[in-house]
């Protein structure tokens, strides 16, 4: 089975449960610019229940909401500034500060259908579990926050007398007031997932983006902060240390500097690792790792600890230089040429005219999958992930 998820950005689908009675002043709304009028823009919400209008005077001067200008068909997120009940019309503003702080309020007409991903809600902790938190919000709704969407903490894991580390959720108490942003709503199972990650709640870039972390970047002495048996590990790569004299606000500010990453169990070593928890201890083990990817919504970098990758000179196309000599492994022959692997994330192509100094009648005999070749770079274009190589010995040598 293909693991494909089909999604839609159409306001008519996203706002399927929206009604006039479920909208309030200060609430965020999603729609598309339908037309340009003399005094502003009509915004289609994809429903006949409610119309919307964005006045020219409420389009942010700094253009952060519309960096390329406003265009018909453009998808927008705005905040309700005023409601005209007689016309069932919402007057909107694109003010980004209002959008970030827009907290959804409880209304009589609201149902689970009217809950939208992206809504910011005030909530209370209903239950604390090792696997996450159960929150109650808008009086009658219950949602969950899993471990990867708890807020990053500047405080390091405290090791107990028996060598164990308390669960990340142990710092929360029932009935504690918190804020979270809805990540998803499953109407069928009536489940709601929320995030308490700082960058999600504040609608800003994750720490790794602000720190300009690059693909392939290496981190040594990364501290293991959580071990999930059979799954992987959370590690702390950077962040300001918390002092005993720091108050709650100072700790929150320092938490914004915390850079965390995730190592899946399959990327811990070149060989299979069976008992992760036997080899690594939260709060004590320090590891070396390299960045293999980024997760914007989780605010995490994905990492590998495989020695073969740590020792690799080329992890991304930006590491490849024109004219460089490389050792590559043949992957397969195609109509366009011979596909080769430079490293785990970098592939190259040897065009048929560059298989050898002379034309090969049976290239499949020379270019066998798995065979190692010494080649030279003819051209590399990192943004499009294109790498052209030659196997002609006169050029390689």
In terms of topology, how is this protein built?
Blueprint lengths: L10 H4 L13 E10 L2 E5 L6 E5 L19 E10 L4 E5 L2 H5 L19 E10 L2 E6 L3 E6 L30 E10 L4 E5 L2 H4 L5 H4 L7 E11 L3 E7 L9 H8 L3 E6 L11 H4 L6 E10 L4 E5 L2 H4 L14 E10 L2 E5 L5 E4 L12 H4 L5 E10 L4 E5 L2 H4 L1
Parallel strand pairs: 3-5, 13-15
Antiparallel strand pairs: 1-2, 1-4, 2-3, 4-5, 6-7, 6-9, 7-8, 9-10, 11-12, 11-14, 12-13, 14-15, 16-17, 16-19, 17-18, 19-20
Considering the chains and any ligands shown, give keywords for the structure.
5-stranded mixed β-barrel, 397 residues, mainly beta, 9 helices, 5-stranded antiparallel sheet, 20 strands, globular, 10% helix
Kindly summarize this structure in a few lines:
By secondary structure, the chain is mainly beta. It has helices spanning 11-14, 96-100, 198-201, 207-210, 248-255, 276-279, 307-310, 363-366, 393-396, and strands spanning 28-37, 40-44, 51-55, 75-84, 89-93, 120-129, 132-137, 141-146, 177-186, 191-195, 218-228, 232-238, 259-264, 286-295, 300-304, 325-334, 337-341, 347-350, 372-381, 386-390.
């Amino acid at each position: 089975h293909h693991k494909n998820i089909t999604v839609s950005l159409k306001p008519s689908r996203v706002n399927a449960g929206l009604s006039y009675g479920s909208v309030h002043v200060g609430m965020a709304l999603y729609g598309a610019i339908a037309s340009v009028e003399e005094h502003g823009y009509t915004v289609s919400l994809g429903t006949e229940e409610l119309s919307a209008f964005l006045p020219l005077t409420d389009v942010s001067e700094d253009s952060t909401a519309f960096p390329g200008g406003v265009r018909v068909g453009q998808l927008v997120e705005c905040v309700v500034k005023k409601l005209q009940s007689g016309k069932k019309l919402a007057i909107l503003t694109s003010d980004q500060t209002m959008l970030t702080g827009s907290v959804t309020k409880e209304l009589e007409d609201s149902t689970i259908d009217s809950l939208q991903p992206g809504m910011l809600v005030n909530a209370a902790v209903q239950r604390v579990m090792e696997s996450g938190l159960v929150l109650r919000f808008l009086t009658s709704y219950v949602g969950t926050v899993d471990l990867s969407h708890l807020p990053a903490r500047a405080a390091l894991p405290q090791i107990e007398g028996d060598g164990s580390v308390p669960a990340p959720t142990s710092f929360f108490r029932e009935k504690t007031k918190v804020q979270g942003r809805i990540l998803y709503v499953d109407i069928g199972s009536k489940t709601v997932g929320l995030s308490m990650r700082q960058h999600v709640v504040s609608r800003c870039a994750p720490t790794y983006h602000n720190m300009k972390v690059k693909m392939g970047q290496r981190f040594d002495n990364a501290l293991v902060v959580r071990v999930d048996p059979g799954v992987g590990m959370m590690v702390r790569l950077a962040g300001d240390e918390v002092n005993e004299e720091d108050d709650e606000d100072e700790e929150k500010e320092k938490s914004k500097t915390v850079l965390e990453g995730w190592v899946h169990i399959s990327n811990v070593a070149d060989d299979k690792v069976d008992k992760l928890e036997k080899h690594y201890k939260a709060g004590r083990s320090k590891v070396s790792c390299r960045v293999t990817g980024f997760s914007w919504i989780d605010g995490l970098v994905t990492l590998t600890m495989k020695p073969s990758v740590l020792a690799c000179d080329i992890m991304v196309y930006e590491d490849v230089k024109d004219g460089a000599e490389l050792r590559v492994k043949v992957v397969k022959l195609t109509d366009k040429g011979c596909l080769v692997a430079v490293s785990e994330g970098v592939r190259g192509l040897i065009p048929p005219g560059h298989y050898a100094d002379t034309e090969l009648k049976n290239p499949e005999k020379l270019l066998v999958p798995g065979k190692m070749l010494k080649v030279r770079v003819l051209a590399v274009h990192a943004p499009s992930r294109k790498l052209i190589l030659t196997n002609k010995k006169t050029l390689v040598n």
